[in-house]
Protein 1
Amino acid sequence: MAKQSIDPEEQRLINYLLGMTSAEEAEPIENRYFSDPNYHEQLLALEDELIHAYLRRELPAHQQQAFEDYFLASERRQKKFLATRDLLSYVDQLLPTTAKTSSVGVPTTKKTGWFTLPSFPRLIGATAVLLALAVCGWWFWSQQQTQIQSDIAQTAVSVSPSPALSNQPIQAADNSLPAPQAPAALADKPQMTVSKPIYVVAFALPGTRDTAEKVTVTLPAQAETVQAQIALSETSDQRYELVLKTTDGERIWQQQNLSRQTTRLGLGVITSLPANRLQTGETYVLDVKGISSTGESRFLEQAFLLISKK
Amino acid sequence: MKDERESRIGVSSRRKVGWALGPMAFDRLLAAFSSDREQAGETYEQLRNTLVTFFDWRGCADPEELADETFNRLARRLEEGEEIRNAQIYCLGVARLLVLEVKPKQNRRAPDLDALLGIAAPVSDKEALVERERKFDCLERCLERLSAENRALLISYYQGERAAKIDHRLELAKSLGITLNSLRVRLHRLKARLEICVRDCFNAKP
């Protein structure tokens, strides 16, 4: 629901859904959807769009406020919200932020849509979608490789003193997710599979201070890089910086300017980790910093990751 | 189907106004929608859904009950012999009056944003993590049940952000030979099916 897509009629409907219209303004909208089921369905579809826009942080401030105070007060819409949140989280894990561009497209067929064509052209259309997703998957993988190389290079030149350790204990969290996580649609097309699989791991950093458990991170033994979905205990910042070190303080990897996202285990960050640089049975230290809108960095938490390769 | 409707309306009416919607009154209600009983049943269901969303969009606390109360009032008017030309429009009028009646008295709870955003459940809470994992398993299973076309469409539709997302959706709609609005509606239906599947899967015993 980004600003540039909204025409005045749609804006009127959005205002209605957000409880921002007077009874007089609402009347023609209600008259119409009571007599036209298609119009009613369009409004329901617009609800989905609003939820999506909110979750992607695309709503202007005043709409965001109305969304939280009014829209989400409804139990029905809360259910829709949760379902959409889960779905987006799932889609995000298929293709992380870097790959979420318009490059995933459906090839244009001729004048008629492929859903209205006979079965063979439909099949071609569907295959084209799968092809597009496969290309995107490959693109994402190659981007990850480039990013890892860049991270390694950065590590060599930008080592700064580690933040003071505060002996923060970390509690173990579940990180067992199926891998690889390529779109299921690709599984039926062996000739189009991504050359290297994309592995996904998810774990949570509880940030509690009363226990001293490590977070066990299980990685596929053959993975060079994995997509890590890391749920953070504190998520008030918009941007985050992660630094991964050995217990001796040697910096292995770092990633800056990560945006807050919905992971499989809650709000956090999604990034790629150089799995091939981590040894099984070893413990690593993960520092998390939050970056404010003014660019100020503050230490948030520290986790001890025990790597297990299988 | 009829029994279900009768019981749904009857329970509400007995509780709310002490007036029960009996079989005769229910038949009269359906007849007000159409002389074809099947058609009338469909209209009834469609109108009930519309009423529920109407009350919801107007910020009422209990949309389902209010939708049933709207039908009760219509049924009573019919029982009293009032001639109603357009039952849908009449229901909208009743519904608007009901909003005025209930809204000043209602105490709608503020949403628990932390819980909705997944912040409230402590990440160390194993039970919450297991539950979330189960939900994702259900989602994966339900997505697999969709046709490859629909699955790809759904995944593709929800990718991208801001301008890229808009361009992508326009492109998607164009390639399907439909308008952006029609694409949205198609995705809405697909998502609604998926939500039902996930809910059923999640509520089934593991």
Protein 2
Amino acid sequence: MEQQIDPKQLAPIVEDLCRLAQVLYDRSQDWPALNRNSRRILASVEMLKINLGRDSD
Amino acid sequence: MNYDVPFWNPYLETLPREKLDELRLKKFRRIFRWAYERSKFHRNLYQQAGIQPDDIRSLEDVAKVPKVEKSMMRDIQRKDPFPYGDALCVPLDEVTEFRQTSGTTGQPVYQADTWQDWEWWSECWATLLWAQGYRPSDRVFLPFGYNIFVAFWAGHYACEKIGCETVPGGVLDTKARILKMQEIKATAMMCTPTYVLGMADTATNKLGLNPASDLGIRRITCAGEPGALIPATKKRMEQAWGAKVFDHVGATEIGAWGFECADQPGALHVNEAMFLAQIEDMETGEPITGPGKPGKLVITALDRIAQPCIRFDSKDIVEFSDDKCSCGRTYRLMPGGVIGRADDITKVKGVLLAPSAIEDVVRSIPGLGDEYEVVVEKRGDVDHILLKVELSEGAEIPQKEMEARLSTELRVRTNLGYEIQIHSYGTLPRFEVKARRFKDLRKHGVS
């Protein structure tokens, strides 16, 4: 099945994820588990941005 | 990030006991219901015992839940869905990781994990590695033949999660691994105690290196066998490498449930936010909650979902302590770690014998090498123990003198007599992963 997905409509959702993960990361300097797991989420969010062709905008 | 924080998870690792109990009960109820609703095996087991999820109202109620033994898992895995059987609680499409037990005690058991489970594995390992001093500034070498044995895979992923530089020492031979560790200036490594000693032996006697001064390893995490909490073995490893050596304990079916912290209290912390550890009397099966009485560990992994581990009969012999650790964790301690295995602790001439006691004696005697082998058999109607040991490289000790010393120290420690064979250096078998040094040729098991 072919779906029509507009990457531009999904991009703000990814930006929200990125912003929330960044808040967790910034606030967890003394909590290694939160800090390192949010850092990994940020890396995965970067993959979402690549998936959406962010750099081709 | 602040590297000086001593806890991977400062919140969970310092929870007051009553809060830990609340958390463990809540998690047990959740995983029990999860398995009951999704797995035919678990549902049948619990229905036969007349117990349902709503019946679990306290941690005491958990003891009513039937145990699962490894032999049951082997039987399950002859059923669908292939290859895991009906203990599986997720669709096969969600399984991302296949591992299997080492097969030390029989037919290997297959273990399914989802990606969530795999994150959980690395979280458990990250907890223990951080507790042992691993930080993002470490360069960790894994001298391990990456395959279906789970332990060091999880260690590898945990190192990545922590932010360590992670070096897979996969298919290299022992010499090449040592030289690579030297070349890249590795600061830490993880392997079995047997291999820690074997690598030191190879470095010293085949490469002319002194691991303590020529290699920069500062900490070593052991898994797969006891040893890092057997005092004489720990001392040998720490002296050979000039490093701190830490124990960790886990199993493929369970997860990484216990660890020694950087304060080295001679005990393991149970990771109680992730596991519910219960001890049962080996003969009566009655719960043991107080300190100082050894029994069999029955354990639940509270967050593992694909192939849940609920009240698993680990066969590990452990005991609780009520001592508080100087590290500040509230997680309960088990002195001496895994003291033995119900499979291995056996009566010889009416006396309970734990192979770890023999190891502690052998490795406390200067001039003896690291390898040994114990064979118990019947000669006529009488139990007989043969202990084979090796002299260390270049040792020149009169055989009679060594036999007499070993015999005396073993008699004091284990209350048993031994036939002792002393072999020259390099003649007993070497092991890389799990050593098999104890052979009971009589009918096996605890009698």
